[in-house]
Design goal:
Length: about 325
Amino acid sequence: MKAFVTGANGFTGSHLVRALEQRGDTVVGLVRQTSDLSRLECTNLQRISGEITDRQALKTAMEGVDVVFHTAAYVELGLVDAAKMERVNVEGTRAVLSAARDAGVAKMVYCSTIGIYGDTQGRVINETFQREQQDFSSPYDSTKYKAQQLVDQAAADGFPVVSVMPSGIFGADDPHFGPVLTNYRNGKLKVWAGGDRITGIVHVDDLVAAMLLAADKAAPGSHYIISTGELSTREMFAFLSQETGVPVPREIPEPIVRVAGTVLDLIGRAISWNPPISRERVHYLYDRCVRVDAAKARQELGWNPRSVEQTLRDCLG
């Protein structure tokens, strides 16, 4: 099989490239000229240079391709370039869908997010849930929702696209939680916030396995939540402390975090800096709770991920 992967040099995309090659597939990837390609060392990826909205580059990359995996996304919270996020997440998805239709690919797998369901207010939901939150929590929330609407419309129009909705993606080389974990293990993480915040967890390689199963087995238009389970931040650090012997970081009281978020948000806007705590991040810590059930992927695709505990152990290395 010949596969095309967008975001091939990213966290999820690079793991997907290696998994495809390991099973003998030929893989083409779209990378920007300024991309860090270190994750693609020791792969045989056929690289096509271009932006995610570059229709000609996408057309070239999809020549003779059987399956498209769209993992490219601008993922960030806080003070972000909202116009760039719209361009990458929404217009990029529009361009990939258009090119894939024109190329006549047999299947496309889109890597979405459980965030498209909006705030479930702590309720555990599945793929039948209809978003109730009327506004959006962030530009990322808004752009991924819009992109999902494009994908669903393409499926309704007869294009063979499947969507996977991962929860928090973890791994030893995770660019988001990984640095936090490194600081924690080195004794440099003394404080934390939002101990009650619940995070859905899936290992990046288990997400990749689900994407491959979706490409092979899923009916066009299907949605699959991909999450191994969930832990609160407090539970997560308690487990990590048990495994490493490193003390659990002290939790900063919520009122202090909220004040800090407001102050740092104002400073960040004044000097074009994305602070570690902002009003948007505080909202995600305390005011928004998305909980999911991934039984459908297990039952229909035969997906069998490692446990939450093993996922965290694997992140420790």
